[in-house]
Structures are given as structure tokens and as C-alpha cells.
Amino acid sequence: MIENNETIEEFLAQHSVDVEEAVRKAAAAEIMPRFRQLAEHEVDQKAGPHDLVTDADRLAEQYLTEALGALLPGSVVVGEEAVHADPASYDALQGDAPVWIVDPVDGTRQFVHGDDGFCTLVALARRGVLLASWTYAPARDQLATAVRGRGAFLDGERLRSGAPEPGRDLEVATSHPDYTTDEQKRGLLGLWTDGIAPRSCGSAGLEYLAVARGELDATAFSWEAAWDHAAGILLVEEAGGAHLTRAGEPFRITGGNALPFTAARDVATVRQVAGLLQQGVG
């Protein structure tokens, strides 16, 4: 059993490549053979017509649960599909054991429609602190990684988000209307103002990657499921960005956040967007 973050840091120094290999193998074995090849019986709905799950989601999560658990004895896995089946398993985020946070196919709708804008997200955390993350877009053959205090990288190249160009509208990817309630939509209304160019988000993981690359100025999301945000939040942080909730506090993967929240490419932008979110009617 891992006893402290120092030994987890030692684990990451020795085994980050093994985690990357596990993520790539899960995609190669369970996701990509089904990309643009899904049969009707391999696609199901969870909470409604927009909340899809496929055999690729389930089997890739199963693969990663076994592989990551074997790499780090004593760790636990919080995966999107496992939590759907057993909501109580989400409580592991509050425990002392190291936690792998897994979204096997982030952007399932894109995946089902044959769009390459999906990714596999893995993050490692302990006691609510994000320690490392992996964002893999298999159809684009892109792998972004981050380790707390060591920076963010895309295919081995250092990521630096930088500041937006002065004088232009800020592009902000927001919660997609198909996945938001009327109350959540009202919480985002402050973004519809001069100087902001909001648009609906695609895969959350790829939107975070765009922020870390300096290609997108900010995100503004209305939900806090850890598997959607953990990997990207750390990626943005390590690229030089920041995140704040509507209450002006850093986003917590353990939950209880004042929503919506934002992640942005620099501190000035995150403060500006968070201030606009405070004007929304929640």
C-alpha cells in the first residue's frame, strides 16, 4: 500500500511510461477496432438519448481498471461506467488510497458518430490532490501528459498555454445545451456579453487540451464528474493556466463546488470568466 505522496512520486518517476502503454493498449484493444465499426447492439443509452455508452466504453474501462490496479498495488479505480453501475464507488475519491480516475471514452457521442474528437482520460490523485494525468486521442494519435510540478506535454513537447491576444473576444467552450438543465443554462448567462465568444463544448478532455495548448481561452462547465475534469484540470495547471469556481475558489475533484466553474489559459482570464459566471442566475 502506498503510504505518502513521496512514494507516489517515485512510482510516477518509474512507471509513467507503463501507464502510457496501458492507455494506448486499452484504446488499441477495445476502442479503435470499434471506431466507425459499431454495431447497433454495441450502443446503449444511460440517462437519455444524448447520454450514450458503448461496448468500447465498458471494455476499455475494464481493461484500464485491471492494468492500472496491477501497476500500483493498493490503489483503487473510479471509472465513469463503474460509478454508473455503483454510485457509492465514487466515494473512493474521499479516501486515503491512491485513486485512478478513468473516463474510457470521453466524447462518446462523437465516437458513435464516427468523429475523431474523442479521447481516453486517466488521472491519478490522492486525498483530492491531482498528481498526474494522461489524455489520449487515439484517432488523432495524440498523447498529452502532466505530472504535478513537472509540467505538461503533448507528444513529448512542453505545453505553455500563454495569455490571449489583447483586444480580441475570448473563446470559451461551455457545457453543451443537450446536457444541461434550464437552471444550469441560466448559470452560464453571464458569458453572453461583449468580449466573450461562447460556444458549445465537444469532448471535455480535448477542450482542456486546447486550453493547455493556447488554442482555446477557457472552458465553463456546469457539472463536476471527476472523470471528465481531473485529467484536463491538471494539464491546464501544468501548462500555466488556472481554474476557479463561481465562488472564486479552485475546483475540487472531490466535489461540493459552486457551479459553473472555469479553467483558463492564464490567471487574468480565469478571473474574468469566473467573475462573469457570478453574474449568471443559478
Name the features.
14 strands, globular, single chain, 2 domains, alpha+beta, Inositol_monophosphatase-like, 282 residues, Fructose-1,6-Bisphosphatase, Chain A, domain 1, 33% helix, D-Maltodextrin-Binding Protein, domain 2, five-stranded mixed β-sheet, seven-stranded mixed β-sheet
Structural write-up:
The chain has 282 residues and is an alpha+beta fold. The chain has 2 domains: 5-158, Fructose-1,6-Bisphosphatase, subunit A, domain 1 (Fructose-1,6-Bisphosphatase, Chain A, domain 1), CATH 3.30.540.10; 170-277, D-Maltodextrin-Binding Protein, domain 2. The chain has 8 helices and 14 strands. It has a 7-stranded mixed β-sheet, with helices on both faces. A 5-stranded mixed β-sheet has the order 11-10-12-14-13, with helices on both faces. Strands 1-2 form a two-stranded antiparallel ribbon. β1 and β2 (51-54) form a beta hairpin. The radius of gyration is 18 Å and the shape is globular. The N and C termini lie far apart (42 Å).
